[in-house]
Amino acid sequence: MPTKKKNIATGGHAKDKWQYSCMIPEPSLRRLPWYLSYAKLLQADGHTRVSSTQIAQGIGVDSSLVAKDLSYVNLNGRTRVGYETAEMVQVLDTFLGFTEEHRAFLFGVGNLGAALLEDRGLQQFGLQIVAGFDVAPGLVGTCIGDIPIYHVDTLKEQMEQHPDVHIGILTVPIQTAQETTDWLVECGIHAIWNFTPYRIAVPEGVVVQNTSLYAHLALIFNRMRCDRLMHD
Amino acid sequence: MPTKKKNIATGGHAKDKWQYSCMIPEPSLRRLPWYLSYAKLLQADGHTRVSSTQIAQGIGVDSSLVAKDLSYVNLNGRTRVGYETAEMVQVLDTFLGFTEEHRAFLFGVGNLGAALLEDRGLQQFGLQIVAGFDVAPGLVGTCIGDIPIYHVDTLKEQMEQHPDVHIGILTVPIQTAQETTDWLVECGIHAIWNFTPYRIAVPEGVVVQNTSLYAHLALIFNRMRCDRLMHD
After folding, report:
1. Nearest CA in chain A to B125
2. Which residues in chain A have their CB less than 8 angstroms from residue B85's CB?
């Protein structure tokens, strides 16, 4: 559809803008939250404008890359004026999905799972955890931070009661990571935020985001060891 | 130094093995925790051996890549026998630093900070949080999960009392992320695990690992939106 393509490239109406957004390269998408934080900081400090050079210096990214990344979300700086910080905050906040409410279920109320249930910070970024699921008799039927814990066998019923829940947060032990994933997908979960260090397999069309704290820890430990060796 | 290089390439004594380890490409290093989880799972299920093909199928990585990644840590599968799962668990656990105790201070006892203080799971992967730091009068002097909270101004004294602490976990608001980082580095912290979405600047030689949950959330939201559009 050439007309659609043209719309996408030049901006076009709302839906085309979203389609355009899907074409952002992942490295650029990963940098957008940095620009958002920086713009929020400037805005809080009373700065109404910022140049790509300032952003580049502030966060340690090449300024041509900054301009390119921001152009993907239709933010274009004006010569000798730069970007409006308020507009940048609003556009990036919206684009990144932080202004919408996304509802999620959490699976595995162990150490990390319970910690995430108590972390109210996620709400500010558009994620509302509606319920937790576990199998432990001592947990099922209780609440953590006002969030009820159900038995994982009742997931289908809970999905029917909460048809707006599409995200599953996976904080189960590695032994049950795949089995739980299969069950989540069967019950209709579209996206899985996988905090386990286990690499889960999902059918095509299911979104998986791996956030293994342990893998990141290993990176820190390794770099520290290498630094020590270099200075020995 | 050609002799050293030779030692590194062929195995050599302990120190050379560690130096060798620093030469692992980061993508391989990032995959090692997946192999570890998979091997742990097999071991728990009573499997004593595993082939690279099995690992490849189990975690969705090409089998030649598996063999290459594992060869970096001197794990070499034997023809028609494969790898010993127990050896793989032991070697990877040690290599990734999970068997050592690394001690850390945590900065910013807000939602996420408090959650991490309560998360005992990190201990199993070699990270022991010794103390939390904040500025809020209501927090300073209290404990969370048996971990004491001190005022951030007392960091220098605490560093003297805990000379084995090298890692700082950063969970402060973005407004104070850079300022806190500067203070940490001044007080002698070598590595910063940055959970803020702010891109902190550090002097050369200081290790930074960014783990922004919000950036990962944005990736999920974006992919879900793209999937919705593709199916509209």
Report:
1. A214
2. none
